[in-house]
C-alpha cells in the first residue's frame, strides 16, 4: 500500500492519500484550472503552458488529519467543479464534482511524488485540454480535449468505486451531500491573492 502525504504550504492542513498506486496522474491545461491558480496566486507554479498536475483518486483514499476546518471552496460557475483550497495559506488542494460522484482530483501543490513513491505511482500518463494551453507545451502526447480512452476509464473507475462504497468517507462533503467548507463564487472578494506562500517551520 503506497501512502502519499499531503500538506498545505503553511502546514496547518495535513493528511495522506492511501493506496496511491491506484490513482491516475494527469495534467490539465483548461482555462478554469488556470483561473483557479491565478485567483489563489499559484499561477507561477503551473507547468509550462499553464498545466495543473492532478492525482485522481476516490474519496475513500483521502485522509485529512489536521486542519479540516481550514478547507474552503470556490466555484467558478454555478454548475462548475467544487475547487478546494485552504483558508490559512490559499494552497490549492483538490477538485470535486459532487458528493454522489466518487472522484477527487488532488492538486500537486499539496503533494510531492519522488523516489519510491514515483516508482510505485508512475509518471503522468494523460495531458488534457491542450487547446487552452497559454504557450507551447514540451510534452508531445497532449490531447486537445479529453481522449475517449480516459473518459471511458474514468467513468468505469467512478462506477466501480460507487458500487464498492468508496464515495465515503468524504473529507469535503457531509452525509447530506453538502460541502463542509464555505463555498465562494468568483465575484466574492473574500478570495484574495496572498502576498506570499508561507512554509512549514
Pick out the low-confidence regions: none
Could you report the average pLDDT, rounded to the nearest whole number? 89
Helical residues, percent: 10-25%
Largest sheet strand order: 10-3-4-9-8-7-6-11
What percentage of amino acids are in beta strands?
A: 25-35%
Separate helix tally: 3
- Tell me the Rg in angstroms: 16 Å
How is this structure best described in words?
The chain is α+β, with helices and mostly antiparallel strands and 201 residues long. Helix content is 16%, strand content 26%. The chain is built from three helices and eleven strands. Strands 10-3-4-9-8-7-6-11 form an eight-stranded mixed beta sheet. It has a three-stranded antiparallel beta sheet with strand order 1-2-5, with no helix packed on it. A hairpin with a 6-residue loop joins strand 1 and strand 2. The mean pLDDT is 89.
Helices, strands, pairings?
Layout: E1 4-7, E2 14-17, E3 24-28, H1 31-40, E4 52-57, E5 62-66, E6 71-74, E7 82-86, E8 92-98, E9 101-107, H2 116-121, E10 126-128, H3 148-163, E11 183-184
Parallel strand pairs: 3-10, 6-11
Antiparallel strand pairs: 1-2, 2-5, 3-4, 4-9, 6-7, 7-8, 8-9
What are the defining features of this structure?
201 residues, alpha+beta, 8-stranded mixed sheet, 3-stranded antiparallel sheet, 16% helix, 26% strand, globular
Amino acid at each position: 500500500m503506497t501512502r502519499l502525504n499531503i500538506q498545505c504550504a503553511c502546514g496547518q492542513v495535513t493528511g495522506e492519500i492511501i493506496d496511491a498506486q491506484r490513482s491516475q496522474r494527469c495534467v490539465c491545461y483548461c482555462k478554469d484550472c488556470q483561473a483557479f491558480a491565478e485567483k489563489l496566486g499559484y499561477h507561477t507554479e503551473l507547468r509550462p503552458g499553464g498545466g495543473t498536475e492532478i492525482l485522481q483518486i476516490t474519496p475513500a483514499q483521502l485522509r485529512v488529519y489536521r486542519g479540516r476546518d481550514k478547507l474552503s471552496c470556490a466555484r467558478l460557475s454555478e454548475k462548475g467543479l467544487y475547487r478546494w483550497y485552504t483558508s490559512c495559506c490559499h494552497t490549492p488542494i483538490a477538485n470535486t464534482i459532487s458528493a454522489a460522484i466518487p472522484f477527487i482530483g488532488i492538486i500537486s501543490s499539496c503533494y510531492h511524488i519522488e523516489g519510491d513513491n514515483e516508482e510505485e505511482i508512475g509518471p503522468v500518463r494523460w495531458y488534457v485540454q491542450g487547446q487552452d494551453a497559454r504557450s507551447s507545451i514540451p510534452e508531445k502526447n497532449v490531447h486537445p480535449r479529453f481522449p475517449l480512452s480516459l473518459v471511458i476509464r474514468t467513468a468505469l473507475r467512478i462506477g466501480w468505486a460507487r458500487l464498492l462504497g468508496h464515495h465515503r468517507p468524504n473529507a469535503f462533503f457531509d452525509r447530506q451531500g453538502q460541502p463542509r467548507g464555505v463555498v465562494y463564487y468568483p465575484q466574492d472578494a473574500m478570495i484574495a491573492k496572498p502576498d506570499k506562500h508561507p512554509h512549514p517551520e
